[in-house]
Amino acid sequence: MIAQNFIDNAGKGRQRQIDAEWIVSRQEAVRFYLWKKWNLNGADLDDVLQETMAAALQCCSKYEGRNNAEPGTFLIGIAKNVAQSFFRREHRHERRRAPFEIAECIGIVFKDETEAEEVAKLLKEKISKLPKIYVQVLDLIFYQEYREKEAAQKLGIPVNKLYSIKSDALKRLRKLCRNDSRFKP
Amino acid sequence: MSCQYPNRLEVMTNYVRGVLPDAEQETFEAHYLGCDECFRDLRFVEKAAAAMHYFGTGIFEPTTAKPKPVSPGWLKKAKIWVEEIALSQQWKRVVPALATYILLVATMSLGFYLITSNLNLTHHSFRAHSDRRGAMLPESSAQPNILARLEHLDWSISEATKTDTALFARLVAIQRIYQNHNYHQAVERLTQLASDFPNSIDAHLFLGISQLHTNKTAEGIQSLREVLQLDPENAAAQWYLVQGHLIQGDVDEARNLLVTLAERQDSQYGQQAAALLATIDKILVQKK
Predict the structure, then answer these.
(1) Rounded distance, CA A10 to CA A68, Å?
(2) Which residues 155-184 in chain A show a CB within 8 A of chain B?
(3) What is the rounded CA–CA span in Å between residue A54 and residue B73?
(4) Residue B9 near chain A (CB below 8 Å)
(5) Is the CB of residue B83 less than 8 Å away from at least one CB of chain A?
(6) Given B41, B52, B83, which is nearest A138 (Cβ)?
(7) What is the pTM of this model?
(8) What number is the ipTM of this complex?
(9) Average pLDDT of each block of 10 consecutive residues along chain A (185 residues)?
(10) B201-219 burial, b if ≥16 CB within 10 A, otherwise e?
(11) Which residues in chain A have their CB less than 8 angstroms from residue B48's CB?
C-alpha cells in the first residue's frame, strides 16, 4: 500500500498526509491548475493530467515534507515536469497563462454553454441585490477589466476602499450563490 | 476550520485575472492544490469572474442604463435592505455597538434621574429640617442626609480587651445582642458598660453606632468623639461620625472628616470615604 504519513516538525504540529487517497482527491485541483497555468485543454489536458496523477502516485512515498512545504508543492513539481515534457514532445511553446476565451472555459469552469448562460442569469439576479457601488466595482474590475487604481480613480474613491468593496462584494455574492447547484463542486 | 491563507479572496481574484505576481502565484498554487476550501472558493471566483466577463453586458446593464423613471416600491427596497444587512458581516459589529450605546444612554439617564431625585429629596429634607429648627440654614449646609450610609458593623472583640476578664465577659454578652441588631437593648447595656469602663474603645464605639441606629444621633456623635479621644486613628469611629453628621445634615463637618479619612489608604473606609466625598462634591457643585 502506497501510504505514508508525515508529521510536520516545523513547530505547528499539523499532520500532513500524502498517500494515494489524498492524491486522487486532488485530481480536480490539478486539472484546474493545468488548465489555468499551462493552458491545456481537451485531450491534451486529459493526457497530462493522467500522466501527472500516475507519476504522483508512484513517487508519493518519497515525499518528505521538508522546510514546512505545502503538500501542494509536491503535486505542482510533478505537474510542472509532466507539462514541460509534454510541450517538448509536442514541439509546442508553453503558454503559461490561460487566455480568457469562453470556449476554453467550457469543460473546466462551466460544464457547457447552457450552464454558463444560467450562471450569468443567476449572477444578474444576485448582483441586483448588491448596493450600487458594489455593482459598479464589479463591473469595472471584472467586465471592463480596469486595474484597481484606475477603477478607484473613475469612481472617485480611495484604492483601499475599492479593495474592501471588491472583497466584500465577492463574499456577499458567494453567500447568495452558496445554495445554488451550479456553484456547487 | 476556515483557511487562514492571508488575504485569500484578493489573491484569488488576482490569480483568476492573471495579475498575481509570479512568486505569489506559485505559493498560492501550491496552497490551493492541497486546500479544499481555497479550491472551492477559487472555483467560485473563476466561475463568477468568467460569467461577469463574457456576459457583462447583460449582467451590468441596469447599472449602466439611465435610472428608471419609476423607482421600485418601498417594500422591495426594504427587502433588499434587509437582505443586505443579513449578508453583511457588519451587523456582527453594529448590533453589539448599538446595544452598548443604548445601555450607556439608559444608564446615564437613570443616573441623571437618580441624582436629580436625590437633589429634590435633599431639598425636601432640608425644608423639613429648617421647619423643625424654625430657622433657615445657610445654602451650603443644606444637608443631603440621604447620603448617610448607616450600615451594621460586625463586632469582633479586640484582643486587648480579652485581657480584662470582667470587661470581656460583659462585652461578649452585649456583642450577641448587638449582632442580633437589637440596638435599643444594646444601647442600654453599652451605656452602663461605658460608664463602668470609660477607657473601653469597643464599648464607646458600639454604643455610638447603636445610638445612631436608634436615631439618637447627637448622643451617638458624642460617644464616637469619645472613641476618637481614646484612639484618634480609629477609622470606624471616624466613618460613623461622618454618618452621624450627615444624618444631622452637617455636610461641612462630614466633609472635613471625609477628607481626612479618604487620605488613609490603610483602612477599608478609605475608598468608601473617597467615593462619598466625590458624590458630595458633585452635589454641591450642581447646587451652585
Answers:
(1) 6
(2) 163, 166-168, 170-177, 183
(3) 60
(4) yes
(5) yes
(6) B52
(7) 0.49
(8) 0.83
(9) 39 56 86 86 86 86 72 86 87 60 74 83 87 90 88 90 90 85 71
(10) bbbbbbbbbbbbbeebbeb
(11) 119, 123, 142, 170, 173, 177
